[in-house]
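Friendly challenge for the regulars: who can give me the structure tokens for this chain first? No prize, just bragging rights.
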Amino acid sequence: MRAAVLHEIGQDKLEVLDDVEAVGFGPGRVRIRVRACGLCHSDLSAMNGVLPQPAPFVPGHEGAGEIVEVGEGVTHLKPGDRVVVCWLPACGQCPSCRRGQTELCLAGFMNAGTPNFKRPGGDVFGFAGTGTFAEEVVVDAACAVPVPDDVPFDIAALIGCGVTTGLGAAFNTADVEAGSSVAVIGCGGVGISAIQGARLKGAAEIVAVDPVASRREAALRFGATRAAAPEELADAKQEITGGQGFDYVFEVVGKSATARTAYETTRRGGTLVIVGAGAMDDFLQLNMFELFFDEKRILPSLYGGGDVLRSYERAIALWRAGRIDLSGLITHRVQLGEINEALDQMRTGAALRTCIEM
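First reply, four minutes later:
Bragging rights claimed.
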């Protein structure tokens, strides 16, 4: 089968090969025919080494498809079922799951160290234990979450990561208060989803901050009340909040510099939500006096900070009701053989989400 492979960390191009085989099928596992996947910035971060991932590997973790085959003991799925790939499944038994913090379950991360594919030259890993830039993938049954037949594959793929992460940051992590002021720094697919979540929660002012003009324009269509380039954020803070700062600021870039800006843009007693996935050697500096004196809440948000299955259901319900726009997030569509074009679209900021159609 075909798959897009990164041979070494740091390379900026993927090679689409036709000699890749999905491996690991057996009890408790399922084989999925991938039909659509989204390109998430985390895929780029894994390629350049910001996020740890053994190589060679097949990127992609935001995908949807249909079940081809189920292993022994899998009773909730059958061939032909439409599913979204969940890269962070909950085991239901670990301390985090028992506390109700299923997004902190490490069971899914344990899969990242086991090869998902092989080639004549050796083993190939799948990013985050999945690797959806492939025509087929074999994963634990818990990673395949059924979705209704009326949900298109491209929409289901987005729900598998970016939409769930952004909406959840506003709904679960921040629990944005109606009438509040919000700033979102970084307006790709995840940031736009956070904007939609803040709008649904009733935020009165939502400022979208991004260096790319097309993304700022898009943010206004999705519910932002104002768009600003990074150098315009200070003026927006002054005009909207009288210089005090926003009630909620979402950092969706994953860099200490933007996180520091986000902290300074948050009002005293306000909430800073860290959504972007950053590097282990990129440190955010805060002095102990400001940390104590400003009483700002700093809330990291992993995968939307809530129960993933409930988050999927909520996103589908909101999409069906027309309360959120998911198809509008897909600004570009490519085939697997054009995957490097999609990478360029992500790097330049030209795309909110590129859908790879398989």
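The chain is about 30% helix and 25% strand. The longest helix spans residues 162-174. Your move, everyone else.
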